[in-house]
Amino acid sequence: xxxxxxxxxxxxxxxxxxxxxxxxxxxxxxxxxxxxxxxxxxxxxxxxxxxxxxxxxxxxxxxxxxxxxxxxxxxxxxxxxxxxxxxxxxxxxxxxxxxxxxxxxxxxxxxxxxxxxxxxxxxxxxxxxxxxxxxxxxxxxxxxxxxxxxxxxxxxxxxxxxxxxxxxxxxxxxxxxxxxxxxxxxxxxxxxxxxxxxxxxxxxxxxxxxxxxxxxxxxxxxxxx
Length: 225
Known about the structure:
The protein is an alpha+beta fold. It has helices spanning 76-85, 99-105, 125-135, 165-170, 177-185, 193-201, 205-213; strands at residues 13-15, 22-24, 37-39, 46-48, 65-67, 73-75, 145-148, 151-153, 156-158, 161-164. It has two domains: 37-105, Herpes Virus-1 (2-Layer Sandwich); 110-224.
């Protein structure tokens, strides 16, 4: 009986079972993804963790995402809240300018105008400019109101009362007359008899002239001026 001599392959080689020849054996190294990235099971590529994670709430992004001009992904609702709370509109990750993105995703809100009407003191030029910018928006509601448990206007507390923008501006002696004049010129503006009566009672003749110029004095109150 003849014995078959088995030859051992040299180090670094392995016998090919089909051909019986010793071939060079290379071990495929499984490359680890760099820090801050994760392997995509579909593509096999290392993708940034931030691409699929909202840096604001730290939850995974599955839908309703927004990509900024600096190529960072966020949940839309998270970025809207961030834009509203950050006047400078800087990216939460790289601090890049994302004003254009914020402008696109923030729904227009007429009540934002009240942010520029201070509780006390005179409105400065910046506040007037910003308020006017909102008021001249095509979707602005000229009869927008605000309600507060303690709404204070020129030292008078209006508890739980709903006050319109026109009332807020008129009842402030230091408000800009150009904003009031603009509101009075709008066809859909609502002027309450109570407001005109207050002006008559307080003898605010300059303001009454503004109302008269824009034909906003009710007929039954004209004789009292």
